[in-house]
């Protein structure tokens, strides 16, 4: 089954202790698609400026991404600049130039309105809601956000959440949105706002899924050589939604496996700058590392032990 | 099989957003024993002052802890005072009065020298080494430490590590000891110092085991009501070593299950001040929550799924 993603396509200038890239390909929709397309067909809706080099998306098209919904507007492409310290935690934003993204009002082409899976990357919740008004009964709506909208457009975000199935956000965002520092309690409060599943991203510590049907906790893949964390959250979402679209299994346990696929996708992304690592991996390579994470998380051997002792 | 623990028995004054206790029972050997004794017999070697109320350890004796190795010295019992902020992360130490602990030179009674499992709680590495000189070929030596010794007695700590099987430390300590911020790489450097297994405690995010035989990562039990994190690390070590002593299974996979038992033991401890929660739980209650964590970590259902898709 195929996926519609609405988000940004951008140029990023990023420095980490491992180096620096200038005006490298980035953007939430780009990272998402690169991972999701390993599992299922993807259609992007986004905006770029006249300076955008469309040949940079050729590898996505080869992977089954429909880029025809990326419109070109007069002006420059969205640019973000940030730097990471030695701990590689959150980036310090040095500069944001919205450029053509400032006036982005996503218009979903007729050909794109019947995708069963919809991912609303982190943009203004009013625009996310406007996307949902244009699509026809998707089977699953997954949505991301950021602190900027939680503090600045809470009412709009809450209206949106009533129409979202899976809400993905990080630990700080969950705390701010719920007004509660315990992640499980925060997630329960967010469930009360509408979504049936809340996924809290814990960065290098993995993800927490809280749903009406239970709690699931997956560690991250222990990457030994983190070079650039930019796009990790969107890549995670790409692998997660991609896997769900591939299998169509939206059960609680189906989500566990999709979270594994998302986690593994993100683990590749952080190993290189921009989309360099995502560009070179394939479905088989992801599958191989999924097996490795299964072993690390105890899934692979537990069948012999569950229910015995301890 | 039984366990020897050498560490502190103390009185703690602790404040958290949930309340405050004054001169409440604490100490690394106390927390460790309360958890370990749910699984296997424990003998404590420690020192207290003349002010110590020995009836407070009655519940440990009922649980199978031999407290005859706790010596009384003239003076006051070790006292620690700390406070936790809203995030319940690391405590801010407000006051430390070593008192009789200042001159503690652990002398292991003849009756205590043949325990197959030895846990060296966080004390001066010179004293930890002195303990190992007094015991007879233990089957497993597990050791904890703290930043104070890593910076102040590195040479002694490194000498000790050559005689330790499992080294348990937290993420910051691992970073400082190894001079490396990536936890897996840090653990590998520590393995090179002697231990065959390194367990890095990630607090609310769980534990990471790095060994010659592989990597294992377990999330923490998602406690919704954390009231006092004091003693969580020692309680974790207690459940971990206790489980190993109960089963005698020191294989890599045996350690996974022991880490589960330790993690669950710690999850109980943080639900109340001092040892109040550890006092009331039993082996069956621990077992029940182990099953719950197996479900949360995906062990319980993965037998049906491992090797399929993803």
Task: Describe the model.
Two copies of one chain form a homodimer. The first copy, chain A, has helices at residues 28-36, 58-62, 125-134, 147-152, 154-161, 171-178, 183-191, 232-247, 252-269, 276-280, 283-296, 299-302, and strands spanning 3-6, 10-16, 19-26, 42-49, 65-73, 79-83, 92-97, 117-120, 140-144, 166-170, 197-201, 207-211, 214-218. Chain A is α/β, with parallel strands linked by helices. The longest helix of chain A has 18 residues, at 252-269. Chain A starts with a strand and ends in an 8-residue tail after the last helix. The relative contact order of chain A is 0.15. Mean pLDDT of chain A is 94; it is low at 303-310. The interface between A and B is large, with 49 and 49 residues.
Describe the structure concisely for a colleague:
Chain A has 310 residues and is α/β, with parallel strands linked by helices. Chain A has 12 helices and 13 strands. In chain A, strand 4 (42-49), helix 2 and strand 5 (65-73) form a beta-alpha-beta unit.
Show the helix and strand layout:
The structure is a homodimer of 310-residue chains.
Chain A: E1 3-6, E2 10-16, E3 19-26, H1 28-36, E4 42-49, H2 58-62, E5 65-73, E6 79-83, E7 92-97, E8 117-120, H3 125-134, E9 140-144, H4 147-152, H5 154-161, E10 166-170, H6 171-178, H7 183-191, E11 197-201, E12 207-211, E13 214-218, H8 232-247, H9 252-269, H10 276-280, H11 283-296, H12 299-302
Parallel strand pairs in A: 1-4, 1-8, 2-6, 4-5, 8-9, 9-10, 10-11
Antiparallel strand pairs in A: 2-3, 6-7, 11-12, 12-13
Helix pairs in contact in A: 1-8, 3-5, 6-7, 8-9, 9-11
């Amino acid at each position: 089954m195929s996926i519609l993603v609405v988000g940004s396509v951008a140029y990023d200038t990023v420095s980490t202790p491992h180096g620096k890239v200038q005006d490298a390909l980035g953007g939430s929709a780009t990272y998402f698609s690169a991972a999701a397309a390993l599992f299922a067909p993807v259609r992007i809706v986004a905006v770029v400026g006249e300076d955008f080099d469309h040949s940079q998306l050729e590898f996505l098209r080869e992977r089954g991404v429909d880029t025809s919904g990326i419109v070109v507007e007069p002006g420059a492409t969205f640019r973000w600049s940030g730097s990471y310290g030695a701990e590689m935690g959150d980036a310090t934003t040095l500069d944001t130039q919205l450029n053509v993204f400032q006036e982005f009002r996503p218009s979903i082409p007729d050909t794109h309105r019947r995708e069963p899976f919809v991912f609303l990357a982190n943009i203004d919740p009013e625009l996310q809601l406007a996307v949902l008004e244009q699509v026809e009964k998707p089977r699953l709506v997954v949505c991301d956000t950021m602190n900027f909208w939680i503090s600045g457009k809470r009412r709009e975000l809450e209206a949106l959440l009533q129409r979202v199935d899976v809400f993905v956000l990080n630990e700080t965002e969950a705390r701010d949105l719920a007004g509660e520092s315990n992640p499980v309690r925060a997630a329960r409060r967010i469930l009360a706002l509408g979504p049936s599943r809340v996924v809290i991203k814990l960065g290098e510590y993995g993800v927490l899924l809280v749903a009406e049907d239970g709690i699931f906790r997956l560690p991250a893949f222990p990457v030994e050589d983190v070079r650039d964390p930019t796009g990790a959250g969107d890549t995670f979402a790409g692998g997660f939604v991609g896997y769900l679209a591939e299998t169509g299994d939206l059960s609680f346990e189906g989500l566990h496996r999709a979270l594994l696929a998302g986690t593994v996708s993100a683990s590749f992304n952080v190993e290189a700058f921009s989309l360099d690592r995502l560009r070179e991996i394939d479905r088989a390579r992801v599958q191989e590392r999924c097996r490795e994470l299964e072993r690390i998380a105890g899934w692979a051997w537990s069948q012999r032990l569950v229910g015995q002792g301890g």
